[in-house]
Fold this sequence. Notes:
Number of strands: 14
Oligomer: single chain
Shape: globular
Structural class: alpha/beta
Largest sheet: 6 strands, mixed
Distance between the termini: 60 Å
CATH superfamily of the largest domain: P-loop containing nucleotide triphosphate hydrolases
CATH topology of the largest domain: Rossmann fold
Strand order of the largest sheet: 6-7-8-3-9-10
Number of helices: 12
Mean pLDDT: 92
Radius of gyration: 23 Å
Number of domains: 2
CATH class of the largest domain: Alpha Beta
Amino acid sequence: MEALNEHRASALAAATPVLRVAGLRKRYASSEVVAGVSFAIQRGECFGLLGPNGAGKTTTLRLCLGLIAPEAGAIDLMGEPVPPRARIARRAVGVVPQMDNLDPDFTVAENLLVYGRYFAIPDAVIRARMPDLLEFAGLAGRASSRIQTLSGGMRRRLTLARSLVNDPELIFMDEPTTGLDPQARHVIWDRLKQLLARGKTLVLTTHFMEEAERLCHRIAIMDRGRFIAEGTPRELIERHIEPQVIEVHGDGLDAWAAGDGARLAARLERSGDTVFCYDADATPLLGSLDRASGLRYLHRPANLEDVFLKLTGRELRD
C-alpha cells in the first residue's frame, strides 16, 4: 500500500504543471504589455515563446519569476503562488537572461561559486558540481580564466552552466543564442537537448525560428501582449500556412508577379525584392518560372518562420 501511494504521488507530481498562468495582465503607463495571457507547462517539455520585439515575452517571463507584480491574473510556479512565494519557488528554477551578466572581476569558477551562494548552497557542494558544469559548458580547464578572455560563445555557455548551479527543475531562457555565430548556436542547442534528455523543463524565448522548431515541444506566438497561436511546430505550420513556398526574385519580377504569380498562387506576398508564393501544389508555379527568363527562385516546404510572418506581419518592430 505504501509503495502504491508513493507511485500515485509520483504520478501526480509528474502530471502537475511546473508553471501555470491564468489571466495574466501587466500595464506600463497607457500600454498593456501583457493582456490576459494563460498557459501551463508540463514537466520535461520545452515551451517556446515567440514574438516580435515588444510583444511582451520578456515581461511575461519576469512576471512568472515574481520579479515584477501583475495587475491581474494568477501564477503558480513550482507549486508556489507568485509573487507572494516567488523567492521560495525560484529555489528550483534556473535563469539564462537575455544579456550576459557575468561578473568580469571574477574567474569562471568564482562566477559559479558566488552565484551558488545566492541559493545558500555550501561552497563544498558547488565545488563538487563544478567539474560537471564546466564539462557540460565545454569549459573544462578554464576554471581559472577571467571572463574578459572568453569568447562570446564561451560566455553564453558559462551563463547556461551558471543557471544549473542549483540543479533546477525548470530553466527560463531569454534568447539564449542571440549574437552567437552558427557554430556556437549549434553547441548551445546540443546542450539544451541534453538538459531535456535529463528531464529538465525549459521555457525558451527566441527570434530564431529554426531554434524553436528544433527544440520546442509546444510554441505560443505572442503579439501585442496576447497569445495569437499555440501548438506544436508541426501543428502551427499545418494550421496556418500553405504547405509549399516559392521565393522568387530577379529581373522581370514585377511583371511575373502581377501576371502568373497572382493568377497561379493561392497567396502571394512581397518583401523587398522577393515575392513569396504560397500554395498546396507548386507545380503550375514552377512551370511558369521555368519558362520565365531572368527570374531566380527557391522552392521549399513551409516552415515556422512563414507562420510567424503571416501572423505577426513583415513590418519592422523596434
